[in-house]
């Protein structure tokens, strides 16, 4: 049973690399974001992100099948004990998700702004290959700026 | 952050994106086609290459369009065609297209462009008969629609560079291909 699960996870992961983006809401190497401080994650690397993204992608897909009524588009919000996970799915199927503190406001708007940043700085980069991890400096720079602005708006500093 | 609003109109969209000098755009495209003709020599090869380039552009362009225009999911192909003609073309080319010639099932229609910024100053010589100069546009539409789960076929019906009175491309919806998940029930 365990081997089946691992094989399925690997297959799912390989395939899920294609359609999931783990949006690290901070420069590369930093982990979860909370509005008060940006914390560094121990040993966060691309493989961890991809694994998380593929896991999320699978959960998102399963939720569509779990829904008692047809027309479920997936998970928008996951509320856990000490964090919230907000997810935004574009009409093209690309998902952007953000892990933040419980009760964080306006994350959906933030995710939409990040979607625009993605279309401007990632998709328009001719050397960015679709479905690959994002390594675009301009995207990272602008992302940090958006987050700083958002933080200033919320905290006033 | 600004509150989320409904879909923008074509003019508002066009005004909100960064624009480039139209001549620069036209001349760059012309240089590209000219270079392809020199490199590939065969008109059919150039047509295919333009379509492929358009396809690659379309797959990326659609996300920008969806992000900036804020449109919601279209209920049917008719709405999709209207959105492309009124908002899509307006946002990226600054011109609107008209949608005509719907077939009985509502899966096939024509986009008619009176004005086409790609072809300003262009005259096709006799050596380039058979060249679909604007083939990149058909690729863009095909690529963009494929990213939103629609498999389509786009062909040129009328071309002003060949003496017709307008540019008309026929878009046919072949099938909807919803996202598939590779879950197996047994192993």
From TrEMBL, chain A:
Gene Ontology biological-process entries: endoplasmic reticulum to Golgi vesicle-mediated transport
Main location: endoplasmic reticulum
UniProt entry tagged with the keyword Transport: yes
PANTHER family linked: TRAFFICKING PROTEIN PARTICLE COMPLEX SUBUNIT, TRAFFICKING PROTEIN PARTICLE COMPLEX SUBUNIT 4
The name this protein goes by in its record: Trafficking protein particle complex subunit
Stated family: Belongs to the TRAPP small subunits family. TRAPPC4 subfamily.
SMART domains registered for this protein in UniProt: Sybindin (SM01399)
Xref: Pfam families: Sybindin
Record-level GO cellular component terms: endoplasmic reticulum; Golgi apparatus; TRAPP complex
Keyword tRNA-binding: no
Tree of life domain: Eukaryota
Keywords: Endoplasmic reticulum, ER-Golgi transport, Golgi apparatus, Transport
Quaternary structure, from the entry: Part of the multisubunit transport protein particle (TRAPP) complex.
Location(s), subcellular: Endoplasmic reticulum; Golgi apparatus, cis-Golgi network; Golgi apparatus
InterPro entries linked: Longin-like_dom_sf, TRAPPC
TrEMBL record, chain B:
Lineage: Eukaryota, Viridiplantae, Streptophyta, Embryophyta, Tracheophyta
Predominant cellular place of this UniProt entry's protein: endoplasmic reticulum
GO biological process: Golgi vesicle transport
Name of the protein: Trafficking protein particle complex subunit
Biological role stated in the UniProt entry: May play a role in vesicular transport from endoplasmic reticulum to Golgi.
Subunit comment: Homodimer.
Natural source organism: Leersia perrieri
Keyword Transport found: yes
Family: Belongs to the TRAPP small subunits family. BET3 subfamily.
Pfam families noted in UniProt: TRAPP
Single GO cellular component term: TRAPP complex
Compartment(s) of residence: Endoplasmic reticulum; Golgi apparatus, cis-Golgi network
Protein keywords: Endoplasmic reticulum, ER-Golgi transport, Golgi apparatus, Transport
Annotated SUPFAM superfamilies: Ligand-binding domain in the NO signalling and Golgi transport
């Amino acid at each position: 049973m365990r081997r089946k699960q691992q094989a399925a996870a690997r297959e799912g992961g390989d395939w899920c690399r294609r359609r999931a983006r783990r949006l690290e809401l901070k420069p590369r190497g930093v982990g979860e974001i909370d509005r008060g401080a940006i914390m560094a994650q121990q040993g966060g690397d691309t493989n961890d992100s991809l694994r998380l993204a593929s896991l999320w992608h699978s959960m998102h897909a399963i939720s569509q099948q779990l829904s008692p009524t047809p027309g479920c588009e997936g998970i928008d919000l996951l509320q856990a004990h000490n964090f919230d996970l907000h997810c935004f799915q574009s009409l093209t199927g690309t998902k952007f998700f953000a892990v933040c503190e419980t009760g964080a406001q306006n994350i959906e708007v933030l995710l939409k702004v990040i979607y625009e940043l993605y279309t401007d700085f990632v998709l328009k980069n001719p050397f960015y290959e679709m479905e690959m991890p994002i390594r675009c400096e301009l995207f990272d720079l602008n992302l940090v700026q958006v987050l700083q602005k958002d933080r200033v708006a919320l905290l006033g500093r | 952050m600004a509150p989320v609003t409904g879909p923008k109109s074509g003019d508002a969209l066009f005004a909100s994106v960064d624009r480039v000098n139209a001549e620069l755009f036209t001349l760059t495209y012309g240089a590209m086609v000219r270079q392809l003709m020199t490199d590939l020599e065969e008109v059919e090869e150039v047509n295919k290459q333009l379509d492929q380039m358009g396809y690659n552009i379309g797959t990326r362009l659609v996300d920008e369009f969806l992000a900036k225009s804020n449109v919601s999911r279209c209920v049917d192909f008719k709405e999709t065609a209207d959105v492309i003609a009124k908002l899509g073309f307006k946002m990226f080319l600054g011109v609107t297209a008209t949608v005509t010639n719907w077939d009985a099932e509502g899966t096939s229609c024509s986009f008619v462009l009176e004005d086409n910024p790609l072809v300003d100053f262009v005259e096709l010589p006799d050596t380039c008969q058979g060249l679909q100069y604007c083939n990149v546009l058909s690729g863009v539409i095909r690529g963009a629609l494929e990213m939103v789960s629609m498999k389509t076929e786009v062909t040129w019906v009328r071309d002003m560079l060949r003496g017709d009175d307008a540019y008309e491309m026929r878009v046919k919806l072949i099938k909807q291909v919803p996202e598939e998940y590779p879950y197996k029930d047994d192993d």
